[in-house]
Each structure stands twice: as C-alpha cells, then as structure tokens.
Automatic annotation (TrEMBL):
Name of the gene encoding the protein in the UniProt record: accA
Main EC class the enzyme belongs to: transferase
Name of the protein described by the UniProt record: Acetyl-coenzyme A carboxylase carboxyl transferase subunit alpha
Origin organism lineage: Bacteria, Bacillati, Bacillota, Bacilli, Bacillales
Alphabetical list of InterPro entries matching this protein: Acetyl_CoA_COase_a_su, ClpP/crotonase-like_dom_sf, COA_CT_C
Protein's organism: Planococcus massiliensis
One example of a Gene Ontology biological process annotation: fatty acid biosynthetic process
Catalytic activity: N(6)-carboxybiotinyl-L-lysyl-[protein] + acetyl-CoA = N(6)-biotinyl-L-lysyl-[protein] + malonyl-CoA
Amino acid sequence: MAKKNAAPKTMGFEEPLIQLRKKIEELKEYTATADVDLSSEIDSLEERLAGLENDIYENMKPWDRVQVARHPDRPTTLDYIPLIFNDFIELHGDRLYGDDEAIVGGIGSFDGQPVTIIGHQRGKDTKENIRRNFGMPHPEGYRKALRLMKQAEKFNRPIVCLIDTKGAYPGKAAEERGQSEAIAKNLVEMAGLEVPVLSIVIGEGGSGGALALGVGNHILMLENSTFSVISPEGAASILWKDSALAQTAAEAMKITAPDLFGMKIIEAIIPEVRGGAHHHYEKQAEMIAQAIRKSFEELKGLSGEELIDQRYKKFRSIGIFSE
C-alpha cells in the first residue's frame, strides 16, 4: 500500500499556497539558525496562508475538482479497504474467463457485520497501472463483480462498491468478450438485489464503467470526485472538436458532487480533508466509514422487496423535474 501521508504532488491551482508555505518554512529556518526574531512576520504569513487556503479550497471550480479526482496520489480501493474494513479476504476470477485486476473484490467486516466489498483499482505507478489496466475493467472484471454480488445476496451480506475508473476498457479484446453485455447484465442484476447496495465514488466515475457498480440504494460521492457519462476531454472533442476545451466542458456537464447532489442523483457528499483525500488517507477513511455507517443505519430496516422498490424509485426519479 502507498505511504499514507507522504508529501503529495501538487496541482496548478495550489501554486500560490506552495509559494507561501515555502516562504514560511524559509523564515522559520532562518529564525532557528540566526539570532533574529521573525515570529511576527511568520504569524502574519500563516494567517495569510489560512485565508488563502479558505479562498482556494472552498471555491474550487469543476476543473479543479477533476484535477483532484485524478491526482496520482489519491487513495484507491486497496488503500481504503484496510482502513475501513476488517478481516478482508480478496476473491478472484469470474469462473468464465479469468481474473481482471482492474476490479478488486472480496469479503470483510464493517463494525462486526460481514460485508462484500467491490471496487475499481488503478495503479500508483506505470508498472502497477499496466497490471491494473489503468483501472479500466474488461468484461471478466464486471462478471467477477456480479459473481460476488450474487454471493453476497445468497449469504445476506450488504454490498459496498468503491467507484474509481475513467471507464470500461474500450479495446477490441474487451468487445470480443462481451463488454457491453457484461455491463448491461450488471445493471439489471444490481437493480434486483435483495440486500443493501452502497456505491461510493472515490475518484473518477466514468461512463458505463462506473455505472456497472453504481446501481445502489445509496450513491455517495467524495467531495472532489466526479461522476459522468464521458470525460470532459471526450465531451469537448465531440461538441467542439477540441479536447483543449475540457475545462469549459467540465463546467457545463455538471459532473461534480455538489452538482449531482443538487440534482438528487446522489444521496450525500462525503467531505474531504483540506486539499483533497490524498493529503491524509486515515482521516479520509474515517469520513467514508462514517458515511457508510449512516447509510447502513438508514437501510437496515428494509426488507429485500423494499430495497428493490427503493432502488427502482430512486433511478426512475432521476431526470424528472417540476417547475
């Protein structure tokens, strides 16, 4: 697992903060080595830094959130699992073709309750990204996920899905093995599961690749995650024949958690630690665990038939607006 609190890589909109923090550190070092008291200057800069952090992090644009969602140090499914769940046992294979490492799944416990956990898994470096196919599943990945969901239903275990993918793999081999059919079958089968299904977008939620794990009773999103039918670059290429207009597309598409919460597509937004989940894995995991706990509490009293009905009504209501 990646180092939980290593110094994260920075993004363009954070540049003013980086420069100010660097200046504060320089003054602190100078104060420690020279016989000069610069405490008042340091206090002034730290106060300015706090105000700047508020301005930047509380007024993030959609494109800023896209950048945070794609951050190379952002925690993945395998980073979160040991921090949220206990006794996790990973299960492999779809029993039809093979094992897709872009989807991780298995059984564990949450607050003493057995659960099934399934999630997309991308890599942290080039070697792991190649192994995980950059988090883009093949059909066997979705069939593995469905196998574990049906197993969870058989043993009456709630299901937690962690979504983090640019989309399903669009290659020739995936199409030959039935990519569209695998995604479509997941949508149908998830809609009829008689156990609670909780889907949490922890990074990018791209296209059908995300929706194949997204037919939940509750859909939650981390504050700086995205959920969309297409990437901003893809939308810009189609609409304006220019992927460089991705920032404009991100603003128009309403793909961020605040946008989707406002449209009642998701049930809740999970707050992120200041600057993004990559700044502190453990604290972020605690916030996700609290959200899971709350959703389970709301869903635990529903029968299998009621869970199906709630899920059906939830998705039927999407896109219906009244003046």
